[in-house]
Amino acid sequence: MRILIDAMGGDHAPEAIVKGAIDAAAEFGVQIVLVGRGEAILKSLTALGLDTLPKGVEVANADDVVTMEDDPATVLRARPDSSMVVGLRLLAEGGGDAFISAGSTGALLSAATLVVKRVKGIRRAAMCPEIPTKTGSTLLIDCGANAECTPEFLVQFALMGSLYARKVQGKAAPKVGLLNIGSEPGKGTPLQKETYALLTKAAELGLLHFTGNVEARDVPLGAVDVVVADGFSGNVLLKTIEGTASLMTSMVKEIFLQNALTKLAALICRKGVLAMKNKMDYREVGGTMLLGISKPVVKAHGSSDARAIRSAVRQAIEAVNGGMTEELHSQAAAVSDLLKRQ
Amino acid sequence: MRILIDAMGGDHAPEAIVKGAIDAAAEFGVQIVLVGRGEAILKSLTALGLDTLPKGVEVANADDVVTMEDDPATVLRARPDSSMVVGLRLLAEGGGDAFISAGSTGALLSAATLVVKRVKGIRRAAMCPEIPTKTGSTLLIDCGANAECTPEFLVQFALMGSLYARKVQGKAAPKVGLLNIGSEPGKGTPLQKETYALLTKAAELGLLHFTGNVEARDVPLGAVDVVVADGFSGNVLLKTIEGTASLMTSMVKEIFLQNALTKLAALICRKGVLAMKNKMDYREVGGTMLLGISKPVVKAHGSSDARAIRSAVRQAIEAVNGGMTEELHSQAAAVSDLLKRQ
Predict the structure, then answer these.
(1) What is the tens place of the pLDDT at every residue in A203-257?
(2) How many Å lie between the alpha carbon of B264 and the closest alpha carbon of chain A?
(3) Which 3 state secondary structure label does DSSP give A64?
(4) ipTM of this predicted complex?
(5) What CA–CA distance (Å, rounded) separates A117 from A111?
(6) Could you give the count of Cα atoms lying within 13 Å of B338 in the half-sphere of its Cβ?
(7) What keywords is this UniProt entry annotated with (chains A, B) (predicted)?
(8) A216 neighbourhood in chain B, CB within 8 Å
(9) Are A30 and A313 in contact (CB under 8 A)?
């Protein structure tokens, strides 16, 4: 398996990306292709105390870099030689099995859609992060790529999330919930009401296991395996978990810093607190899959360190092994039929 | 000051409501009017070991009760003798200065709008809870009353939230942020883009202190004093904080339950952990103001215990003392002018 990585994307590129890639190549035994400025990558190697590329790691040169200021919609034309676009081209042409970037989310989504293309019949690609819950983790689809959605988009998101949970996460009959402001079927805006009806029909056809509306409060408690949302409210859900976890982690820290005794308590609980912090931390989970693209593309967090990149590589490997693209293709057709009958 | 309380609303009515009301009358020195079935209220008194109404507490009889199954839109016609409707009538007619209910949110909003009426010029009443943050608390307006909103609604929410922060919370120039999926002005759906432009103009006119978009991640960190949102995404924000806090509180509990040493650590940190739990707990904050109604109406949480009711009474007292209705009236006119000039 060959995993392509954008060496130049993210706040800590290229150093953290190069280190994470090398770690992943050693740990997972896959071939890694670092896409980016050869000189900068070699400099990072030197900084890591290496004078040559380790076994399993190679470089594909790309002279340009996508910046956070670039307009996502025009990045393909404006930056054809960027590490992101070159990497996606390699993916499309068979030069690798998956692509990972910690660069601009909007640019990655737009360029992946144009270069690698969506699965036939899928109207929008969507971001699908795993969020930490009491019982493990839950997939959230969408979380910001598509601020405005139609019921058709949401039904396709549900389908893609359910497939990912089955094929990649190995869940037998993942529970799919529609993010809403109440559990009753009539709740929400017309978007939720229409989507609820369509998901009910999709479930009747055996396409997925729809368990109804899910309130935001029940998501971190692990009520469902897949949360379906428009990109706006999905983004609010995701970032509120992040902010609340950050707030509470700092509160726990303060509790332990009160006096000599609480500092002793901190030592006793060190392992548990670290485990909690890691569970609530996106870096342990890896990146976010762009579902709906015809080959696996992973968006790593912009502030990814080497550990986050290593996790994103593991996720890319699982996505390749899951091979959900073929089934998504046939299910997309079934959903189109369902919508046509409306 | 006379505070009217719906004795029959909420999961633990009337016992918890009666106890909270008695506690509040003693603690805050205000007159409390318990509205509801006289017999049930007296039975609660007996259960509390009292054989008569304490000083400062009286009963206004209402024979019926609004249930969670009642259609909010028709509750005024269907349940004219309910404790909720009778209490709101007393408020409208000057029989009290504020009304508190832990009953159905939708019914309270609908009945308060019809019986007590909105402030002239205000298009929608909105729920405005205080959410816990690193720096204290932040007002969230709206959090679910209005799932679908227009830019005009959101600008009025911003105005009401800002006024409440000034008049009731005593903040000099509260920072108002628009909940969005990015900090840049062009982010979000057309609703956010148009609202951003209007809020910028309102700020230029000196009506409020608009600090731009705020991402959900920064809300628990205390980035702004007032978060403006449509009811759908505001509800997602509020309930995600609740769910994440619940998840992390149970994780902290587990850390302390590992072994004899961690149990010792739990004893050492008991006070701090309790303080954290209380900070993240809605019951410490009290209820949620319905802003835009011409007199103070407080929605207490459905699962309110006596402590929550006591907090809601304190909040109602502060709202009465703040006297924001008059200023809201004149500012609503200024916003109408602003919108007309568009």
Answers:
(1) 999 999 999 999 999 999 999 999 999 999 999 999 999 999 999 999 999 999 9
(2) 8
(3) strand
(4) 0.90
(5) 9
(6) 25
(7) Acyltransferase, Cytoplasm, Lipid biosynthesis, Lipid metabolism, Phospholipid biosynthesis, Phospholipid metabolism, Transferase
(8) 235-240, 242-243
(9) yes
